[in-house]
């Protein structure tokens, strides 16, 4: 096995019995892919697919005015470069975001010459309009909102589509199963169908009042005859003077008890009265070529007429469809000369008369009456005018603006209805509604199966991109309303698109989502594992999801389809158990948002290296062996019977029946659970605690790699983004505590760019949980690097491996009762050696505001403080970096003006003696909190635009610029060295026509001559070969261009640093002081092993 340069530094012995088949995918892929697809920033406008921002704009535009003569069209959008980078946003408390600018056209049509079909364009105005700011995702998959890192958690919600279920007999006291169906769109009104205990079928829209389903069927254009024709088959009768002849259909007779003697064609009795008709009887009737059976009169009474019966001569309707036959009606029919009569066929077992009964409760007569009934239910109290009634019905299910099934919904709907195609209209059609009612009636008749709502084929994941898109759509919808109102004015007034579009609603919608949504969470940054887990979280809570109180036991339980998709172990204990889950190690999302997991294909008992990703629905069709199934050296399955999973059940099957096999035993668990060694021997509850508690481990002073690991440590550390990884291969040119400079390999450097990578390391940065993020280089000057190698360790990592704790020698024994139950006894040496000492960083902020009595001031001039207390403050009144502070020490001096007060006698006396006014300011300095001892590690000063900076603020800016210039100089040094190396290779051994130091014509150049000339004068050498001259000219131009670019970059940085800061209203100056506190292990601290013990 070939080791990378990083792995060679610590070679691990692998005790695994199986080789890895599939590399663990990048653990933040799901988040990053989702947001990349949302922004499509690097895709050319013409090539963008209809998703994310593009889909939102396409849905909102074009906007047409009420009169139709003005239109606003959208062409494309672009994203501006963010003003500040991630680190600057964090220090300044800003949002790391990019401005969206959309190119729109305002088209005004000519009223006079336009017709409704053919509009003549009068003028077109095109402009780029600002459409709010969209937060950008950082390299680590998080967002920086108002200076803090946040994570948008993915949501697991019920997939759009159609679902069939029953109430499990809980609604009615008899325990009867009441079936129901529900069509859930992505956006729009829900449509429910449900049976009541009397077997009448109702529908309801958006959980409003229920109505008989036949009203809906009439509203979509069916009448009584067509409704019955859709749901029933007919028994055809030929009326006789007494009784009738019924058409013989063997399947309908079989199993029934004869209510009269059944005779064949010749009059022979085949089945006697009260006897059950068997297959032998029907076969006998078929053999005797009997086509009709004589039935008595009372067999007809109570049957339901299937079609309207019309008098051929007068045109009078003698019997209506769905009317019950009575003696009187039969007499009337016979007297009118009706011979043939169709009645619907029903039975108690599998052909109930539900729709016919429902039709009887329905009082509407035609399509319009049915639509009026629906209108009254939706808008009680409003007068139903014809236009309003038709418009409302269209808008409910047929209008793409208000109803959207989405691609997923349509795919799921068609699959459920047994249609072969997976695409179609995004709105409902009449056929869709009819098909759902038919399937539901079939269910009630005992055909088919209800859906399992907790099956992962019925639940899909909504990622960051989709959630952000929904918010952007909401903002655009609000804009659309406002623009529509104002478009009319554009005809009279010379308005431009930016006068009509106000981007505030978009900014507000996005700000609310990223800042306050239930799914936008403060990133858990305790250690690298907690970061990575937070980003891989899947929550069933949130807008459009479940609520804690309403979620039952079933939703929270582990389901068979979780296998390889969602971790069965890692979930919080407490009220959220089972509602918040973690994605399994190899799981990914498919194009519809369903979770897929990889399997190796097995053909005729031989395991291949082909890997297929299967969703929960596809998986149910196959027989899948476990990852630990025994294989011979050729990769064939051995053994008579092999343990496998089929349709969610564990079965023992022969090798030739197996179609797939798991890729790894770790495929069923999440990252945190896969870090527990020997997980298979742990108790499930304890494993849950172990996985959860490893996320709470505080980074220690000296991280120590685990002696026994699972091999996931390196993957977790690298993917979390805590360690610094080489983006390209090369050689380390320079290393110090704060930066690593790498000269990139020529093969990996792109043409015309600087072949240098500079990695600035994070030093003592405060995390969201006040822990310390600190990077240490692990390479030396001259080290060779390949792409992906670890350059520097971060918090809780050791040589690029996750190191959450320490390797301790522990004893399971009693010790005078001091370790009763869950107490742990620690030796003093553990504390003395700082094994569990950690550094925490606290941020203390002070603001100088403008008050009614005058401005507050940050100063060293503080009343009633001794010189000793002031000796650590500089002349600006701010503490020095490196000062050790105790509780009560002043960090930043600040005075606030106080109002005129009545003087005490003492003050009056002082006034009289010294004749001056005593100070009228009070001390409001920033001091260290009680219980904190630490070291000041950083100070940031922010000054409002227009206010003079103090010396300390200026000094901070100068230091920052000096550091930046150093980076640029390093880059320039390497670029120049590289350029002169290339020139030397070009010139040595070549003839020259002249050059510095009076070089004679035709001299062959050697290294000694080049060394005697200053490098920048090499460009004055005139080679005899024109080709070499051209190459040298190109190198010279490249160097000059690089220098120019660096000067521009430096100037931009200087401008950024010297411009005023954005501060809250009324704040003139803000100072942030960062204090590092060293915490030792003390009684009351929590300690745990990886197994939750």
The computed structural class is alpha+beta
How many helices? The count is 31
| Rg estimate, integer Å | 40 Å
Average pLDDT, all residues: 90
**Biggest beta sheet summary:** 7 strands, mixed
**Share of helical residues:** 25-40%
Per CATH, the class of the largest domain reads Alpha Beta
The rounded distance between the terminal residues' Cα atoms is 36 Å
Q: Residue ranges: pLDDT <50 for 5 or more in a row?
A: none
Q: How does CATH name the architecture of the largest domain?
A: Alpha-Beta Complex
What percentage of the residues does DSSP assign to strands (E)? Answer: 15-25%
- How many structurally independent domains? 7
Find the count of extended strands (DSSP E, 2+ residues). 54
Give a quick set of tags describing it.
single chain; 1093 residues; alpha+beta; Rna Polymerase Beta Subunit, Chain: C,domain 2; Dna-directed Rna Polymerase Ii 140kd Polypeptide, Chain: B, domain 3; 7 domains; seven-stranded mixed sheet
Please provide a written account of the structure.
With 1093 residues, the protein is of the alpha+beta class. It has seven domains: 29-144 and 462-522, Rna Polymerase Beta Subunit, Chain: C,domain 2; 160-225 and 361-455, Alpha-Beta Complex (Dna-directed Rna Polymerase Ii 140kd Polypeptide, Chain: B, domain 3), CATH 3.90.1110.10; 232-348, no CATH class; 588-663, DNA-directed RNA polymerase, beta subunit, external 1 domain (Rna Polymerase Beta Subunit, Chain: C, domain 4, Roll), CATH 2.30.150; 694-832, RNA polymerase II/Efflux pump adaptor protein, barrel-sandwich hybrid domain (OB fold (Dihydrolipoamide Acetyltransferase, E2P), Beta Barrel); 838-946 and 1069-1079, Beta Barrel (OB fold (Dihydrolipoamide Acetyltransferase, E2P)); 956-1053. The protein has 31 helices and 54 strands. The strands form 16 sheets. Strands 25, 26, 27, 28, 29, 30 and 31 form a seven-stranded mixed sheet that branches. Strands 8-9-10-11-12 form a five-stranded antiparallel sheet. Strands 44-43-54-51-46 form a five-stranded antiparallel sheet. Helix 5 (213-219) crosses helix 12 (367-378) and helix 29 (951-987) runs antiparallel to helix 31. The radius of gyration is 40 Å and the shape is elongated.
